[in-house]
Amino acid sequence: MSVLFANRYQCCICRNPKRSVIVHHIEEWAESRLHDAENLAVLCLPHHDEAHSKKTLSKNLDAKALRDAKAKWEARVKQFDAESILSAMRLEYSNWNFMNELRIFELARVIGIELKRIFQFDQLVKSGIAERSGLPAVRDNSLFYMYQGSDILARYFYVSEVLSLVIKNLPIINISDYLDKGVLSFALAPGDFIFVQGAHTFSPTTQKKNGKGRGQICRGVRKANNVEVRFTFDRWEATSSSAKSEWLTGTKNQGSLIHVKDLSRDEGRLVVTGTVLGICSNFGDLKRRDYAKGLGRAIQLGRVEEYEDDDDWDKDQ
Ligand SMILES: [Zn+2]
User: Fold this and answer.
1) Under DSSP, is residue 244 helix (H, G, I), strand (E, B) or coil?
2) Where are the domains of the chain?
């Protein structure tokens, strides 16, 4: 994840979204030769000046002060993204049209989420919705879609609750506003979790004769400005009949939560391939993160990755 994304394009000292920013080397590059994100901090121009001033004031922005401020701000930013995705989801209940149960419960295990502490867990087990291990019970392969049936609501709430807990615990980057090759090609890395909203195109890659059971594999693509986000999923795992036949069919405005596996270039496009954890509707307010303006400015100033701050920069005395 690029340091700019991780910091919302905001100075980690003043966090002022209106100020233009620069990427600063915490340990001077000439000495450390450290180029990795660990040695970089996002600073506004005044704080950048301050970090470069050699005064030995107690308030001086030395490497330690910068690292502390950066760590605190980055932790807050991660929380913002998780919160914005979750609060948008509360707008309407039946939001997830698809949930990748296998991957969600795998992540829940890795993160250490205690499924047994979920509201009414014992009841869920008793009524056959969840197994004692916490995994959702296996569904009959003769169904048209996995969430078919009258008693399915409890499963939906259970799985979506686990997904919410997973989201709260992952550093998710909302890239909806940054579908731009120039920005994303250096901002993303395999292993990142991203959320992308907008026109998704869903098309089946395999046709099942009777339209029943697992293996109704479908490709999902979100494409804009020479960036293509791609994933495949089993449409059988749709959470409702309309999810399967309407929301996950053709081109629809959806949001998808993706674990990035690979970044590649294809005829001048940046192709982001990943595993989809969930696909949802109605993320109306989520698209614009409030640092969008800051990014616009950063790009106007030049290609962001070329912001090597050199010590001669804007010294006016
Ligand atoms: Zn600042």
Assistant:
1) helix
2) 3-80+295-306, 95-281
Which of 120-134, 159-173, 246-260, 284-298 is predicted with the least confidence, judged by mean pLDDT? Answer: 284-298
Distance in Å, CA 143 to ligand 1 centroid: 57
Question: What does the alpha-carbon distance between residue 51 and residue 263 come to, in Å, rounded to a whole number?
Answer: 35
pLDDT classification of 266: cutoffs 50, 70, 90: confident
Contact by Cβ (8 Å): 254, 229: no
Q: Please report the DSSP string for 6-61 in residue order.
A: HTTTS-TTT--TTS-EEEEESS-HHHH---SGGGEEEEEHHHHHHHH-----TT--
Q: How far is the CA of 11 from the centre of ligand 1 (A)?
A: 5
Report yes or no: 140 and 149 within 8 Å, Cβ to Cβ. Answer: no
DSSP run (H or E) holding 300: helix 292-301
Strand-pair category, 172-174 with 193-204: parallel
Mean pLDDT of the chain: 81
pLDDT digits (tens, 9 = 90+) for 30-56: 676 666 778 899 999 999 988 888 655
Q: What is the DSSP letter of 258?
A: E
Q: What is d(CA 146, CA 177) in angstroms, rounded to the nearest whole number?
A: 32
> What is the Å distance from ligand 1's center to 47 Cα?
5
Contact 188, 125 (CB under 8 A): no
3-class secondary-structure state, position 212: coil
- Phi and psi torsions of 301, nearest 5°: -70, -15
**Ligand 1 centre from 48 Cα, in Å?**
7
pLDDT above 70 coverage of the chain, percent: 81
Alpha-carbon distance of 123 to 112, in angstroms, equals: 21
CA of 15 to the centre of ligand 1 (A): 6
Q: Is a pLDDT exceeding 70 seen at residue 142?
A: yes
* Residue of 259, 251, 263, 180 whose CA lies nearest to 220: 251
